[in-house]
Amino acid sequence: MELFFEEVHSAKIPFYGSGYFCRFTYHISPNISMNNMSAQTTKNARIPTGFCYVPQDHYYIASLLQPHLVRYLYSDGATSCIIAIVTGKNQQGVPITVLSHLSKPVCVEAFFDVVTHQFKGEMQLFAQGANAQHQEAIDTNTQTIIDLFKAWVAQRSLASADGYIYKAHLWFNTGNPLEQNRDCLGIDLATRQVSHQRFDLTEDQRDITGGLQTLASIFGAELSPPIVLRVANAPFTHAQVKQLLFLALHYQWLDILTMKDEEILHYFSSTPHCEVSWFCDALRQSAQYVQTHLHLVL
Q1: For 188-227, how does the pLDDT look when each residue is reduced to its tens digit (9 = 90+)?
Q2: At what angle do helices 212-219 and 238-250 cross, to 10 degrees?
Q3: Does residue 200 form part of some domain?
Q4: Residues in Cβ contact with 252 at an 8 Å cutoff, skipping those fewer than 6 apart
């Protein structure tokens, strides 16, 4: 398998949101088929049965033999993050699929570990992101993530019973992330069709915990033990909830409730010039969660 790429210098500082990523273009060689990719980009499609949303710095593994549980994996808001999908089989030969939304090198490495432990034999990789525009210089975080993906694809392209990538479809720096659904990626597990189809979701549908998963994405690495990459919609322990609340208070998270959109984008988004429309609402929801649960820590 061959991968051709072109670097385009970029930049940005960090905290949350669509993560920090550089502008980067991969050109896939002609011998790699795109048959599993749908060009469907219908605006605001109806949410399918068995829909599972995967937030930033989370992942979800679905078995294709249990379509009654999860039938569609999806994530969005990846302006400079990467949404990655791997399809293949586990050690028992059962078809499985994992989708993850990745913003930091440590999360990328954790995702590779998940794939290594869960998948055996041939795998197919789909990855989209790094579409933040108008940045000036590549930062360390961005370059590290790029190098990790490049090295992993190269390493996993060699045939091995332990798991190897036989097809890779990568869409990085293909244009403005707010156009043509470039910030979202999903897979229909019944048809195994990957697409950029967008779904119009509420904040409660993106975070069924009411803001706690957002807090975990932001502060999880500071917990003891740290949360690096967690299973989407998995329950939190009482200790984790309290630690996240303490961290949010330490960082004066309640101030977000009185901030204007412009202030939230300035202080917390790595891509304020091309941020998704629901970014500010997601952070306000997480701050509201803190305010509602103050009794657990005060």
Answers
A1: 998 999 999 999 999 999 999 999 999 999 999 999 999 9
A2: 70
A3: no
A4: none
